[in-house]
Amino acid sequence: MPETDLPLLIDAAREAGKIATRYSGRDARRWDKPQGAGPVTEADLAVNAMLEQRLPAARPGYGWLSEETEDNPDRLTRDRVFIIDPIDGTRSFAEGSSTWAHSLAVAEHGQVIAGVIYLPLRDLLFAAQRGGGATLNGQPIRATRVLSESEAEVLAAKPSLDPRHWKDARPPLFRRAYQPSLAYRMALVAQGRFDGMLTLRPSWEWDIAAGDLILREAGGQCSDRAGDRLRFNNPNPRLNGVVAAGPRLHDLLIRRLAPPADQDLPA
């Protein structure tokens, strides 16, 4: 990996923050995407335009995958690919919240090698490169080592505790909390503020890629709901949910989850 990949992502994320914060979330023009794909604002598009010009120009051999760019299968032929969510938590942005984030990653042969999650309104910049550890605003961070589910506080949407998701219809005993940005949830687990996070519905790669590496470099584990390691730059860029936590708690949650009998069950 070129030594400059992580600084490139950090600089681009900070520039993204400058652009996004020029818009007032509640006043930014907003549209609903077709087929119930969620909202998009003029800030999402402005950030995406900057990133799509800046990052491929700096790395012309890399592919491109972004929530706000029409997918191009050419990315599947590239060894390395940018995986970008210009604003993760668009609904929060539009409501005037401070919990939305920019999520930028580079994957190589299906594994993330550099990642940044940046919350400009909270001045929080989470970053990692493969083998280099994870940081928050330049300081090392570590995931927790909780040993039992009853001790744990886990970020998850309420439907994740539906008994149908769990063996013997017994949801785990952890304390549940929630944040709307999936990228921020993963970063909070890497930071050690929460012990784990899970989402059991199919999840887009751009929400997850940067957080996957940051959490792993912070000593945590991250997988899909079946316990399989996440791979990125797939033809269909959706993953089979995400379970992320310290090693012991991650294993406990995976063992407790039931096989997904109904892919449409909300989580």
From TrEMBL:
The protein's required cofactor(s) are namely: Mg(2+)
Q: Which residues does Mg(2+) bind?
A: 67, 85, 87-88, 207
Coiled-coil annotated residue ranges, if any = none
Family listed = Belongs to the inositol monophosphatase superfamily.
One Pfam match, by short name?
Answer: Inositol_P
> Which keywords are on file for this protein?
Magnesium, Metal-binding
Quote the protein name from its UniProt record: Myo-inositol-1(Or 4)-monophosphatase
Signal peptide per UniProt: none
In the record, what terms sit under GO molecular function? inositol monophosphate 1-phosphatase activity; metal ion binding
Q: Which GO terms describe its biological process?
A: inositol metabolic process; phosphatidylinositol phosphate biosynthetic process; signal transduction
